[in-house]
Amino acid sequence: MADNYGMTTFAATRNPFNYDKFEQIDRAITTNWLTLDEITNQLNLFGDESQDPYLESLELAVRMAIEDYLGMPIFPITYRVYYGISSQYNTPMFLDLPEVSQNATVINSVKFYNADTPSILETLATSTYYYDATGNKVILNTGLPSNISTNRTSPIVVEYTVNPNIIAQYPVIKQAGLLLFTHLYNNRSDTTATGLQKIPFGVDALLRPYKPLVM
Questions:
Q1: pTM (2 decimals)?
Q2: Closest CA to 124 of 105, 106, 141, 104
Q3: What domains appear along the chain, each with residue ranges and CATH number?
Q4: What pLDDT shows up at residue 213?
């Protein structure tokens, strides 16, 4: 958008946090949360083991859907987060984390791209930073490294793991998982055969009280 003087201006970012982007780099995709006994009892499938492989694959999809809805890990999830340097000149330096767990958040590494050509990813000593659970931030005591790259868009990289959240073991959360499982098992589409109407189910009502509010 151009102003009255022909200068180009840009709207401020709507992201209230100071990371540029983040990505999942490790997640349990083979570990079951709901047992086969719980599933077969829920579906009234007794003495029929022919569907077990399908039930186990569907269980993984259900568990991941519950995790993603709540923003809480049932099993550990590891993230990589990137930060720019434009707003990082304060000491100590605060690095917001996009996903955390009230049980435990483990900082695996804090790295930065240095000013060499080509730029190399260096790892900071663990003594130079710590995790502040009260603000969901990594705090660097000494601020920016003096040899950080200024040519990289996001030269600061944090990798961390969020451990299972205690809420994931609440009976109401498990019941929501079983209810979602039943819905997906009985309805191989998310619409009815007539009129393409969405099929309602009560998973949202069970999970919503435990979904964190974004302030």
A1: 0.79
A2: 141
A3: 29-74+170-210 (1.10.3230), 77-166 (no CATH)
A4: 57
